Amino acid sequence: MMASGWVWLCLLLAGWTSNNSMAAKITNFTIGAVLNDDRHDTLFREAITELNSDFTLLPVNATLHSASMRLDPNPIRTALKMCNYLIAQQVYAVIVSHPVKGDLSPATISYTGGFYHIPIVGISSREAAFSDKNIHVSFLRTVAPFFHQADVWAALLRHFHFWQVMVIHSADVDGYTLLNRLQTQFQSNDDDGEQREIKFELTKEFVPELEDFSKELQEISEGQSRVYLVYANAADAAVIFRDAAKLNLTGAGHIWLVTEQALDVPGVPIGALGLQQMHASNEAAHIRDSLYLLSSALREMEGSEKDITAPPQDCNSSGAVWETGRLYFEYIKKQVLNDGLTGKIAFDDNGDRLFSEYDIVNVNRPHAKTKVGQFFYSKYQNVLKLNVNDSEIVWPGGLRQKPEGFIIPTFLKVMTIVEQPFVYARRINDPSVEACNDGEVACPWFNNTAESSTDRFYCCRGYCIDLLKELAKKNNFTYSLALSPDGQFGSLSPKNGTGKKEWNGLIGELVEDRADMIVAPLTINPERAQVIEFSKPFKYQGITILEKKQPKSSTLVSFLQPFRDTLWILVMVSVHVVALVLYLLDRFSPFGRFRLANAENTEEDALNLSSAIWFAWGVLLNSGIGEGTPRSFSARVLGMVWAGFAMIIVASYTANLAAFLVLDRPKTSLSGINDPRLRNPMENFTYATVRGSAVDMYFRRQVELSNMYRTMEGNNYPTAEEAIEAVKEGKLKAFIWDSSRLEFEAAQDCDLVTAGELFGRSGYGIGLRKGSPWTDVITLSVLDFHERGFMEDLDERWIKLGSGQQCEHDEKTPATLGLKNMAGVFILVAAGIVCGVGLIFIEIMYKRHQIRRQRRMELARHVTDKWRTMVEKRKNLRAALENQRSRLKSNGKVNDSMTATRRTVGNKMAGSNIRTANNTEENLATLMPGNMMEMQSAQYHPPDGVTGLFSANRRSKLTRGTSVDMTDPLQQQPAVVCGRPGLYVDFSV
């Protein structure tokens, strides 16, 4: 019970104390210091006094107080002293320093202050460990850590254009931190905005307290780079410099960049460049700048925060957390001192100083250093700038001219890939027995993935092989050639399902330093240019589409293709309109045949409508016109105009017919990359490219082609050869690839054709490692090849010569026409024959009908004439009889005369014959009075003295076949119908 009572009493006292502290405004602030000597203690107290006299830097009515102590070699005693001398006086912050030489470290001060969240400001500690906020929670520093030298190194390398370096660093926290910062700086842009990555050719680390470094330096000497970055303490740097001198790595052509720690080491190479942080050893200036930062942060915190509490007063309350200390630390990190005694001061998230300035120092002679440049803060640009006087630098070997920084190797490992016509590969079984032919180069294929050796040996030739040989000849290097292990050009792809993307193919060989150069039809694109170097293009090209030719289908009406349907209709209408107008002009013209006064047979020779149509067609079809030509001048003028029209129409038709049937070639079915069948493909229309190629990356990169990319992503082929073969077999409708290759394939195989115009224009370049010394050399060589026509010679030899002659000949040679092309014409002739035969039957039937009708008309005319004659004779006879009767009456002999007359007529008719319908003749005597006769179309042949009459007597109409009583032939009764109703046979004396 008593113990619990003491606990509650302590809590109440603590709460009372806390409430009182919150209630009362704090006006006294104590700043602690852990310095090296009494002189700096005095400077510290004087700076406190100056700040107290300047009311603009402190909170209102606030006063600063000082408290100081010394570091103890024993960390435990250092922690106890801090509790007794600093924390006991309730310090708000502690400024700490330590000798540059010696084992004393402010780490203990940082641990202790961090436990209570008391801000610790270091003015001489530069180790990377203090940047770890998990350990040094409340530590800041006004000096830059050693690993910030990487920023200056990167600026120097870019200034001197050293793009490939060797890095030697210690295997500790400082060494690894520096390496990481170097990697970040090497990948960033330079001051001009140029993004060119500085590459580590080799990185060698060592364990501190080094004794020998000869083996590692020997490996370094075998590389290409001659730029060495050394991060080591003084003792380790001395060993490195000693062994480097033994291997002649400190002479002319070598460049050494060293840290501040190694700059004063005996044996540092003459010509080495080092760094020295400005004001780093001026502790007095750092003390004043630190106090200004602390007072400024106090003033800002006091004006913004209301719940400011006093710091802890002892180290016995292990669970107490000073929240105001956390806030104070954040306010200190936000402070920016533009005109400090040590320059501009600001802090990053780790509490490390930004905007540190450095002197660039050159070791120009033993134990002598010269300042040759500066890495300084520019107020106008608000950035750190590098200024180096290159003329004052003495380089290793006593040289005044900047070394290249690398040696150009004379033996290169070259990679290529099989891609006709650029690279052809012929397999050989045993290279020791079977050698490559002239013009070929050995190009083995090494399987880097298989556990067992499955290497194959090939001999390569082609466009790129000739280019490689010419490059080697011009630039005096030797090489070994090998094929791409995975047969790919190179793309970023996930590795082993980890999600991490790595470059494969030829690009991966360069990135992983397994090759020095790529000589192949390698497309230059932004993705690849980020990881490798490219020469200037040795061939410019684009992307196009390959498809199989669609044979042109010949229809039965293919001979009608030269004209559109509307034009054919107009021609047909024009023929008949012109014929009609010709007929009318010749008919109504006073000079036509119809109007000639003295012409004989005018009606028969006149231009009728049928002859006019025949004339119009004859002129149009250029056939001979022997009859039925226009006679009038007006009609002949129209005929001449029509002849001119026909000449133009026929000539146009003939020319177009030749183009369609003779010179016409199958057209491509695709119009180009914007064809609707590519943009919105059907299920039965497939197209693809090569998986992981530059074309594949192009479609992936273009937003407007994203739909096409998703469509063909699952159809892509591993190689161009497989895709081209699929197009030939009809499995693939279209293959999208480099124009150079597809044009070559289309020239080789006349069944293939490229469609549309080029898009995605780019070029083929020679690939090299980033920072390769051969980049500029190869680029200049390629430009020289273009200028002297060597690249054109390669085009003629490998791409144009012998590749397109046959197809070009076929394109220019007229096609041989067959029955399939002209079947419609033959069918037209057959149709004409059938129509002619059909019309002849119609004509025969019509003629027969016309003959029958004509016979009836002739018979009718003949009978009519006979009837007229008989009527006249009867009239004459009656008149004679009347005269005779009159005379007889006067003489009394009338009856005897009539009887005699009838007897005479009967005797005459008894000897006459009549032809009946059955074409038989019957004597009229058999048909005399008392007999009946059926007469159908009878033809009467009366004897002399008796007249047979056909009359149109309308007294009684009889139909054909009517029997007539001919008892009294002198009675005028119709005997039979002859031919038409209304024609009758009658007999009279």
Automatic annotation (TrEMBL):
Residues 444-512 form the Ionotropic glutamate receptor L-glutamate and glycine-binding domain. Residues 1-23 form the signal peptide. GO terms for biological process: ionotropic glutamate receptor signaling pathway. One of its GO terms (molecular function) is ligand-gated monoatomic ion channel activity. The record marks R700 as: Interaction with the cone snail toxin Con-ikot-ikot. L-glutamate binds at P521, T523, R528, D738. The record marks L670 as: Crucial to convey clamshell closure to channel opening. InterPro entries: ANF_lig-bd_rcpt, CaM-bd_C0_NMDA_rcpt_NR1, Glu/Gly-bd, Iono_Glu_rcpt_met, Ionotropic_Glu_rcpt, Iontro_rcpt_C, NMDA1-like_ligand-bd, NMDA1-like_N. Keywords: Calcium, Cell membrane, Disulfide bond, Glycoprotein, Ion channel, Ion transport, Ligand-gated ion channel, Magnesium, Membrane, Phosphoprotein, Postsynaptic cell membrane, Receptor, Signal, Synapse, Transmembrane, Transmembrane helix, Transport. Gene3D superfamilies: 3.40.50.2300, Periplasmic binding protein-like II. The chain crosses the membrane at residues 567-585, 637-663, 822-846. Coiled coil: none annotated. NMDA receptor subtype of glutamate-gated ion channels with high calcium permeability and voltage-dependent sensitivity to magnesium. Mediated by glycine. This protein plays a key role in synaptic plasticity, synaptogenesis, excitotoxicity, memory acquisition and learning. It mediates neuronal functions in glutamate neurotransmission. Is involved in the cell surface targeting of NMDA receptors. Plays a role in associative learning and in long-term memory consolidation. This is Glutamate [NMDA] receptor subunit 1.
